[in-house]
Specification:
The complex is a heterotrimer of chains A (201), B (597) and C (277). With 597 residues, chain B is α/β, with parallel strands linked by helices. Chain B has 26 helices and 20 strands. Among the domains of chain B are: 236 residues, Rossmann fold; 81 residues, no CATH class. Helix content of chain B is 40%, strand content 20%. A six-stranded mixed β-sheet of chain B has the order 6-7-8-3-9-10, with helices on both faces. Chain B has a six-stranded mixed β-sheet with strand order 16-17-18-13-19-20, with helices on both faces. Chain B is globular. In chain C, helix 3 packs antiparallel against helix 6, helix 4 runs parallel beside helix 6 and helix 4 packs antiparallel against helix 11. The chains are: A mainly alpha (201), B alpha/beta (597), C mainly alpha (277). The complex binds adenosine-5'-triphosphate (2 copies) and magnesium ion (MG) (2 copies). One adenosine-5'-triphosphate (ATP) binds next to helix 2 of chain B.
Chain lengths: 201, 597, 277
């Protein structure tokens, strides 16, 4: 407890400590809330599907800050939740709703762990992008493989949306990971981002 | 026995920022069965000390021994220590783990790997001690805070600790409930020999403890019996603490020549005893003067009642009801048939026990929810009308919510305080001025705080930032929902002064909700007492105090001065008990006794 | 109106002491999994009709008002309809199709319509079964049942106990976080924020005003809860194990229900095979 490591996600990535169990629990709760509270988990978009989801963000964050095991557990919970809440028939298929979600946290963690030595913000952004992309690519592949949609139909529909989703995920992951480390380091003062006379405070 | 020898503890990152260690060279011994109180200002290291005792933190220098086991030894010992030292933390929501009461109490014994039968026995025992049997199967999220607190204590007791540490268990509960909890805890110490270590910001709670330890900036400043500690008033005040009001009263009276009083008066009973000795003279005389005395007492000073009719009311509620989660099997009536009028420029108190519906009412007043039924007029306009926009209320009413943590949502203090002005598209320079003014009004240096991360603020600072954020909106009405919870005496005094200063601003309406009369009584002109979602009565502070018995039945804590006066009532029948503050109490006491003599 | 807690009550346990509510969670879970598997497999209207019969009996046993179940379904109806249209339009017929209407990859066939109706019926049944499980089983029972059923996995090194603790913690935090989000929304509305306006970028930034404090509060609670759990001897070191106060008991009703469910599954699969041939 007292010896908090500088980089929680990369020290002994596959072991499950009490802290990691709690992180997974907290992120699972957030995932569930994003799913249950109306409009919280979605950003309305003007396209065919209608909205970009951010429900995978907790899973990505879990992978980045607490390693692959937490990413895996969060992904599983996310998957099971979307399986049960699904109203469209193809999401009542576990290979579409659950299986792809297991990989979100893993790829996000791997990306972050690989790039964190270069720059933490960059690594977080990449992890967010890759995590969201994993989600879209695997779900869409599952839809095509299971024969719900032909590829030439589904890909144009989701293309724009998935790019927006990935960008939103990248931005939010950077912000959230940065805050995690601010809390971890107990920083007190933020640097000013603009000259004083352009700030409202 | 717990022995702390020269322990120093430093949260590692603090070093980087040149902050002194949270604990410095502490030495302390706590024996079994002892009741120890720890007081100290916010951030003085009290909670850190409890973590050291429970072997959650290991001191960097010095040692901590619990029943001759060192906390830094590692291995199995740590679990034995944690079993012996039970900790109930500050906020019950932070420590309850399971979803139902019985599972929560069983959590600790389950972790010890005990056989099922043994767990059942312990859970039963703990529930009995804290009187929780009827709640066994309830969901924790449906419990009130005071019940949650009791569940937390039961959960620790089920582990059969030898030392029970309570970190500010009474900040979230009040009045009679808090006293009951304390007496239960003291009974544990006396009957089961469990040492109790009680951390608190309320001085009057600890007068019956064996020992009081005063902490300041990571060091132990005093360690002695309550009488010894509370004799050093000046020193205590210098570190932001205080002594119980009755001690102050005792001092004043001694200075006035009541030589029978002990050096340090700790309870109203002690005052009463000495009053009795003065009172040796014939009681007949007392009864004689009684009638005239009562009428001779100056009638309560005229409160503002004139001219109110003329002004249009700010809020008018008629038969208002509000139902939470209506339309589900979990619906709950929070307000029923409530009628209330609030005039502009007044200072109004909303007082009621927990669950009375204060916060629900505040949401209505702030335009955040609409009543389920009934009439709600804002400045004479019906809010149910189609053309009425709730934003009209919101733009004029500012709310400081019950828990400041959840109303600060930006990354830095500056961004958060400027949120309101930004939403209104106030020009940048004007917004900067508003932020500066608001921060300075709440006593936070602008240059230092504008770039501070909101995550790094202490509880008291958060509350100030929340108030600053509301002031920057330049509202006509400010609503405070239990703003004092969890603050140390200095913090409370400063906030009190701030609200008092706001009250002087012309045209500002202040609404203050609380579950005790303590601060309300000195701040407001009118008090509305709520219970179970309806209005019980309204009146001036003095009228409210006169109904002490009713208030007590509602579990609303009286101000300390009135409590003391009531305790002296049997000895001094002529004493007027509707006293607002200490000065008034002392004056009344002197007056009542000089009449007797 | 800012009131979130109501959304979280849908699909919550209704403790009415009915036979289904008292059933052993293990038996209930196995039955639910069997039935969910069954409905995913069924592909004929005849079999679904028999299934409906079974659900009527089930509903009688649960003693839950049908109105409440249907009301919780209402928000999904519109999605179901949209999904129906999509299904019909994108249906890819296996053989040379009898187009009623055709353009590019879109088209309408009778087969497509029948198939889509079948999927809707299937989704409704799935939804009903899942809702029934959550209405009649408390989350505590559910996690208990899962823990016991999955115990063999623990032996091969999959941390089931830890996973169940994750669920327990998630359940604890859901009501707390809902209250927090509700308070945040109130605080923001009180300070002049209007939620339903703005372009994409503004919406993202508004959402992040809720999302970020939620995560921050979560991160902070991790530390505090970690301390609280360790203080109560929760460990994750080698050789440590927990025991449980709760014991599950298989009663006669559970055995009966289990046998009946298996029986129903076999019959329905048989009917489905017969009819589709
Ligand atoms: N987890 C932590 N990491 C780093 N510093 C901390 C941590 N917890 C507390 N501190 C710092 O250690 C000091 C002592 O804090 P502690 O919580 O022990 O005070 P306290 O007396 O319990 O205060 P309060 O009355 O507000 O509860 C403070 O300066 C605080 O900022
Ligand atoms: N969001 C909510 N959902 C459901 N019930 C609620 C909600 N908020 C409050 N309640 C219930 O409504 C009743 C009134 O609660 P309210 O918070 O208004 O009381 P209060 O007087 O502010 O109490 P306290 O002093 O504890 O803050 C309580 O029984 C409470 O449990
Ligand atoms: Mg503390
Ligand atoms: Mg309240």
């Amino acid at each position: 407890m007292s010896n908090v490591s500088a980089n929680p996600s990369t020290t002994r990535p596959w072991s499950l400590t009490t802290e990691r169990i709690i992180i997974a629990g907290v992120l699972a709760a957030i995932t569930i809330i994003l799913g249950v509270v109306p409009n919280l988990g979605f950003i309305p978009l003007p396209n065919a599907i209608g909205s970009a989801t951010i429900e995978h963000i907790p899973t990505i964050v879990g992978g980045v800050i607490a390693g692959p095991i937490v990413g895996l557990i969060s992904g599983l919970i996310f998957g099971v939740l979307s399986f049960f809440r699904a109203t469209v028939p193809f999401f009542k298929d576990p290979t579409v709703a659950i299986l792809p979600r297991l990989f979100i946290g893993l790829t996000a963690w791997a990306t972050f762990a690989g790039l964190v030595r270069i720059n933490r913000d960059l690594a977080a952004a990449a992890a967010g992008f890759v995590g969201a992309a994993t989600n879209t690519i695997l779900v869409v592949s599952a839809l095509i493989i299971r024969g719900y949609f032909p590829a030439q139909v589904i890909i144009p529909i989701v293309l724009v949306q998935s790019i927006i989703e990935a960008i939103i995920a990248a931005i939010l992951t950077v912000i959230l990971v940065r805050i995690f480390y601010i809390l971890e380091a107990r920083l007190v003062h933020a640097p000013d981002t603009k000259p004083r006379d352009q700030l409202p405070y | 026995m717990i022995e702390i020898k020269n322990a120093t503890f430093n949260y590692s990152a603090q070093e980087e920022q040149d902050v002194p260690p949270a604990l410095q060279d502490i030495s302390l011994t706590i024996r079994e069965g002892e009741t120890v109180a720890i007081i100290g200002h916010n951030g003085s290291g009290k909670s850190t000390l409890t973590k050291l005792l429970a072997a959650i933190l290991i001191p960097q220098a010095g040692s901590v021994l619990v029943d001759d086991l060192r906390t830094d030894a590692g291995g199995e010992d740590i679990w034995t220590i944690r079993q012996h030292v039970g900790v109930v933390f500050q906020n019950p929501d932070d420590q309850l783990i399971a979803s139902t009461v019985i599972d929560e109490i069983a959590f600790g014994p389950e972790n010890l790997g005990l056989p099922r039968a043994e767990i059942a026995v312990r859970v039963q025992e703990a529930m009995q001690t804290l009187d929780l049997e009827t709640y066994a199967q309830m969901a924790i999220s449906e419990l009130s805070v005071s019940l949650k607190q009791r569940v937390a204590i039961a959960g620790v007791l089920a582990m059969r600790p030898r030392y029970l540490i309570l970190d500010e268990p009474t900040t979230m509960i009040s009045g009679h409930t808090a006293q009951q909890l304390l007496s239960t805890i003291q009974k544990l110490a006396h009957e089961q020999g469990i040492a109790v270590i009680h951390i608190t910001h309320f001085m009057s709670e600890i007068v019956s403890f064996d020992r009081v330890i005063v902490m300041d900036a990571g060091r132990i400043l005093m360690d002695g019996t309550p009488a010894q500690v509370f004799a050093r008033v000046a020193e205590l005040q210098a570190v932001g603490l205080d002594v119980p009001m009755v001690t102050h009263v005792g001092q004043t009276l001694r200075a006035q020549g009541w030589s029978q009083l002990p050096d340090v008066v700790l309870t109203p009973d002690q005052l009463a005893l000495s009053v009795e000795s003065i009172n040796q003279g014939d009681r007949a005389a007392v009864n004689d003067v009684d009638g005239s005395a009562q009428s001779a007492v100056s009638p309560s000073p005229p409160e503002l009642t004139v001219g109110e009719e003329g002004r249009a009311a700010l809020f008018t509620l008629k038969d208002v009801s509000y139902i939470h989660r209506s339309g589900t099997p979990f619906a709950l009536v929070a307000l029923q048939q409530l009628a209330l009028t609030i005039t502009p420029g007044s200072a109004v108190g909303l007082v009621g026990p927990t669950g009375a519906g204060k916060s629900t009412l505040i949401d209505l007043l702030a335009g955040l929810n609409k009543p389920s039924s009934g009439l709600f007029y804002f400045e004479g306009t019906d809010t149910a009308a189609k053309s009425f926009k709730l934003t009209r209320i919101r733009s004029q009413v500012g709310v400081v919510f019950q828990s400041p943590e959840s109303q600060i949502f930006e990354e830095t203090v500056g961004k958060d305080v400027s949120f309101g002005p930004r939403q209104r598209k106030v020009p940048l320079a004007e917004s900067r001025r508003l932020v500066q003014e608001s921060l300075e009004a709440v006593g936070l240096p602008y240059e230092d705080f504008r770039t501070r991360y909101t995550y790094a603020l202490s509880g008291g600072q958060k509350r100030r930032v929340a108030i600053a954020g509301v002031l920057a909106l330049q509202p006509k009405v400010i609503i405070f929902d239990e703003p004092m919870a969890g603050l140390d005496p200095r913090g409370r005094n400063e906030l009190f002064a701030l609200i008092q200063a706001l009250k002087q601003r012309t045209g500002l309406t202040i609404i203050y909700a609380s579950s005790s009369l303590k601060d309300v009584i000195e701040l407001v002109d009118t008090i509305h007492v709520l219970d179970k979602g309806s209005l019980v009565f309204s009146g001036t502070p003095r009228e409210t105090l006169a109904r002490a018995a009713e208030l007590r039945a509602l579990d609303i804590a009286l101000p300390e001065a009135a409590q003391i006066a009531l305790a002296l009532r049997s000895q001094l029948p002529t004493l007027r008990t509707a006293v607002l503050d200490r000065a008034e109490l002392e004056a009344e006491l002197l007056k009542a006794c000089s009449r007797v003599l | 109106m800012i009131e979130l807690s109501r959304y979280v009550t849908f699909g919550q346990y209704v403790n009415n002491g009915s036979p289904l509510a008292r059933m052993d969670p293990r038996a209930k879970l196995i039955c639910a999994v069997l039935l969910i598997g069954l409905t995913s497999y069924l592909s004929t209207f005849q079999a679904f009709a028999l299934c409906l019969l079974f659900c009527v009996v089930l509903h009688q046993l649960s003693r839950i008002s049908i109105g409440y179940v249907l009301r919780s379904l209402r928000p999904f109806i519109i999605f179901l309809l949209i999904a129906f249209v999509f299904e019909v339009l994108f249906y890819v017929p296996p053989k040379a199709p009898q187009w009623l209407w055709h353009w590019w990859v879109l088209g309408i066939t009778w087969q497509g319509i029948i198939n889509s109706i079948l999927t809707i019926v299937r989704v409704l049944f799935l939804y009903y079964l899942a809702a029934m499980l959550s209405f009649t089983t408390s989350m505590v029972d559910l996690t208990d049942g899962m823990e016991v059923l999955a115990a063999p996995l623990q032996k091969i090194g999959i941390p089931i106990n830890a996973f169940v603790m994750v669920l327990v913690i998630a359940l604890k935090f859901i009501p707390i976080f809902v209250t927090e989000v509700e308070r945040l929304m109130k605080a923001q509305a009180a300070r002049g924020l209007n939620f339903d306006q703005g372009n994409l970028f503004q919406r993202v930034s508004k959402l992040s005003l809720l999302l970020i404090p939620l995560f921050v509060s979560g991160f902070k609670k991790v530390k505090v809860l970690n301390v609280a759990m360790e203080a109560r001897c929760y460990g994750s070191h080698a050789g440590w194990h927990r025991t449980k106060l709760r014991a599950l008991h298989f009663a006669r009703f559970d055995v009966l229900a289990l046998t009946l469910t298996i029986f129903v599954c076999v019959i329905l699969v048989g009917v489905n095979l017969l009819v589709s041939r």
